[in-house]
Design a protein that fits this description.
Blueprint lengths: L4 H17 L22 H8 L4 E2 L3 E7 L2 E7 L5 E9 L8 H5 L11 E7 L4 E8 L5 E8 L6
Antiparallel strand pairs: 1-2, 2-3, 3-4, 4-7, 5-6, 6-7
Length: 152
């Protein structure tokens, strides 16, 4: 039975239209999307249960120091839930995650060792940034920040 060229073209057009109309929202999340089991939206009490007593406590943030090379600052909403996590690694950067595990892709460094990348993950409700500062006292700062979902 011969295939009708018009029917084949129409079927291909419909299938292609369906494929193109599907919103590409299956963004792959990087592996580093929480810190020491602390996640965005978690309660202040749960954070302190996971991380212990903060070095400094404020109404809207807690500061934690885990070693001379690793510290974190957790910022809270007025409802005392995590809105941002900022982690800083200094000196020995061997325990810091790489850019790809934070923002999902490699980040090119300047000759001085500096690098920066910020990526939004709207379906997951956050953005992540990776900042590396080179030089004699290198550091890496990673930020995970709540991103309100917007309606299309």
């Amino acid at each position: 039975m011969p295939v009708n060229k018009f029917a084949a073209f129409f079927l291909a057009f419909v299938l292609l239209s369906l494929l193109l109309s599907v919103e590409v929202s299956a963004q792959k999340l990087p592996e580093f999307n929480s810190y020491r089991s602390v996640t965005l939206g978690m309660s202040k009490d749960a954070v302190r249960e996971k991380l212990g007593k903060p070095k400094n406590e404020f109404a809207d943030e807690d500061d934690f120091e885990f070693s001379e090379n690793e510290s974190a600052r957790i910022f809270y909403t007025p409802n005392s839930t995590v809105r941002a996590i900022v982690i800083t690694y200094t000196g020995d950067l061997s325990k810091a995650p790489g850019a790809k595990s934070v923002v999902g892709e490699a980040v090119e460094q300047s000759p001085e060792g500096n690098a920066y990348k910020m990526v939004r993950f709207p379906d997951a409700g956050y953005w992540a940034s990776y900042l590396r500062v080179g030089g004699d006292k290198p550091s890496i700062t990673i930020t995970l920040h709540y991103l309100p979902k917007t309606s299309n």
